[in-house]
Automatic annotation (TrEMBL):
<dbReference type="Pfam" id="PF13834">
    <property type="entry name" value="DUF4193"/>
</dbReference>
<protein>
    <submittedName>
        <fullName>DUF4193 domain-containing protein</fullName>
    </submittedName>
</protein>
<dbReference type="InterPro" id="IPR025242">
    <property type="entry name" value="DUF4193"/>
</dbReference>
Amino acid sequence: MPMDDDTPRTTTANDGGTGAVGAAAQLLVGRTGDRRGVGDVLIDEDELAAADAFDLPGADLSSEEISVQILAAQADEFTCASCFLVRHRSQIAVDRGGRLYCVDCEG
């Protein structure tokens, strides 16, 4: 009998109410001591601990202090008048009235 993939699975009386997925999950939980089951989903404790160590983009870093050493532009560097990046003098493409442009911004 064809079954629609979107319909929820139901348990039958002969499988003990656990279902095939639940029985497989119980077997896996029995074999591995570092996993715990939540419903039919297994959670690996090692992966959970590793995930807590990662900082997500956009996280609140207001309590963090960042120290950066700022150097003045060196003699062999220039600041592009278009993108305002500090580049090596070998990347000067155009000098328009004392305003230097890099090879990426020429045009």
